[in-house]
């Protein structure tokens, strides 16, 4: 239970990639972390790309990042929606400025791009947004998981075991 006492935000919106939300959430919970699903509205049920529901515990606007130790951003089409909320960008920037672990997988890089925190960083993502990541100033690396300080990034669902472990490792050391 090396993550006991740690609290993590997991962002959620419609059409999240089901495995990319739930796998790291359960992985962190298995190690003792308290993970809160955070969406535009408290208590709203969001539906993943493949029909798996996720009900938010809190709304973006109600989050004080000082109360949390890490951030998970799922892939799917949700990141394109998430990056349009100023409070999501605030949360992402504040977590980064505090050097707290931020996990992002697949299309989740769009949120980090819009938060303007990728310049000079090494990351990976789905190859489909490689150009976006590079245009934001990041160095894109084609590996299952890339760790650059507090950023933990991964490409897609087959990489989830390496991603889940890496995020928990970085969170445990923070």
Give the helices and strands, then pairings.
Elements (H helix, E strand, L loop, with lengths): L6 E5 L6 H13 L3 E6 L5 E3 L5 E3 L2 E2 L10 E4 L4 H5 L3 H12 L4 E4 L3 H6 L7 E2 L6 H6 L3 E2 L4 E4 L2 E4 L5 H14 L1
Parallel strand pairs: 1-2, 1-6, 2-5, 6-7, 7-11, 8-9
Antiparallel strand pairs: 3-4, 10-11
Helix pairs in contact: 1-6
Q: Biggest sheet, open or closed, and with what strands and sense?
A: 7 strands, mixed
Oligomer: single chain
How are strands sequenced across the largest beta sheet?
A: 5-2-1-6-7-11-10
Topology, number of strands: 11
Q: Give the low-confidence spans.
A: none
Instruction: Sum up the overall morphology in one term.
Output: globular
The count of helical stretches stands at 6
Question: What is the succession of H and E elements?
Answer: EHEEEEEHHEHEHEEEH
- What structural class is derived from the secondary structure elements? alpha/beta
The radius of gyration computed from the alpha-carbon positions, rounded to a whole number of angstroms, is 14 Å
Beta-strand level of the residues, as a percent range?
Answer: 15-25%
Mean pLDDT value: 98
User: Could you tell me how far the N terminus lies from the C terminus, measured between alpha carbons in angstroms?
Assistant: 15 Å
Instruction: Classify the helix fraction into a percent range.
Output: 25-40%
């Amino acid at each position: 239970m090396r993550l006991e006492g740690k609290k993590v935000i997991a962002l959620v919106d419609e059409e999240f990639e089901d495995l990319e939300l739930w796998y790291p959430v359960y992985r962190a919970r298995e190690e003792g972390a308290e993970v809160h699903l955070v969406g535009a509205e408290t208590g709203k049920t969001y539906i993943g790309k493949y029909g798996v529901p996720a009900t938010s515990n809190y709304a973006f606007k109600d989050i004080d990042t000082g109360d949390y130790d890490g951030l998970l951003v799922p892939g799917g089409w949700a990141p394109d929606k998430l990056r349009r909320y100023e409070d999501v960008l605030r949360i992402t920037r504040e977590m980064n400025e505090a050097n707290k672990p931020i996990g992002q997988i697949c299309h989740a890089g769009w949120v980090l791009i819009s938060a303007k925190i990728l310049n000079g960083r090494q990351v990976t993502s789905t190859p489909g947004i490689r150009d976006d990541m590079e245009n934001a100033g990041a160095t894109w690396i084609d590996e299952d998981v890339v760790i650059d300080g507090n950023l933990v990034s991964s490409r897609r669902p087959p990489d989830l075991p390496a991603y889940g472990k890496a995020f928990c490792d970085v969170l445990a050391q923070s």
